[in-house]
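Deviation from plan, reported transparently: L45E5XJ5 complex.
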Amino acid sequence: MTSNFPLVIAVDGPAASGKGTIAKALARHYGLPFMDTGKLYRACGLAVRLAGHDPYDADAAADAARRLDPALLDDPDLMSSLNSDYASIVSSHPAVRAALFETQRAFAAQPGGAVLDGRDIGTVIAPDAPAKLFVTAAPHVRAARRHAELAGKGGSQTLEDVLADIHARDARDSGRSAAPLVQAADAALLDTSDLGIAAAVAAAIDLVEKAISARRR
Ligand SMILES: Nc1ncnc2c1ncn2[C@@H]1O[C@H](COP(=O)(O)OP(=O)(O)OP(=O)(O)O)[C@@H](O)[C@H]1O
Ligand SMILES: Nc1ccn([C@@H]2O[C@H](COP(=O)(O)O)[C@@H](O)[C@H]2O)c(=O)n1
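Because the crystal trials were delayed, the predicted structure below was used instead.
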């Protein structure tokens, strides 16, 4: 179904829940631009690491966020476990979030709409988005998927290590005071624990269609 309003789709959820896979598929399906907002925080974490700063140093992290080098968004180390940790630590600083806010907000405000995935899209970046999904899956399922992904890229982390990383990141993302990971009151919950990618994407399209219909009424 096409919408007669800008179709902004907010996709949030915990680490490795499959929200990026779903958000990209939604962007393809609806012909919309897509932003993986986690990459901004990952690039900030990487900049802090490369400069040898402590990720808990809010001033250094905010400075890195304000001068973010776009080349870092394509760095091969962006998605490593170590960098995931840095990203989740720097993202807890309110000044870092403030520095990255406008880029995300402007992307969401494009005339034809957009799809963004992250932790606070439906709550902070695009609170008026007509379609919001909160994608989740059981921690052991998320860990198994991420472990397979990392192993496919030559990684040597054990499944237990990946699960511990995911638990640590979830706790930090949900427990911080600045824009914590939380399901927006008007977001549809999509648990993909028992769904393969094709089924999860089909379920997501179904939920977006329902949201479009509801907005038209
Ligand atoms: N429904 C699914 N069934 C099986 N594998 C899946 C499913 N959804 C995603 N995956 C796989 O799980 C891994 C994590 O998915 P994805 O990168 O989309 O998660 P994410 O929530 O965006 O992660 P992150 O928070 O780290 O950015 C990928 O390897 C992806 O191919
Ligand atoms: N909107 C967002 C997106 C991400 N984060 C933080 O960045 C980390 C990495 O994000 P991924 O989506 O690539 O996993 C994540 O753990 C969050 O700490 C965020 O705070 N807000």
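The beta strands are 7-12, 34-36, 113-118, 131-136, 188-191. We consider this an acceptable substitute for the interim report.
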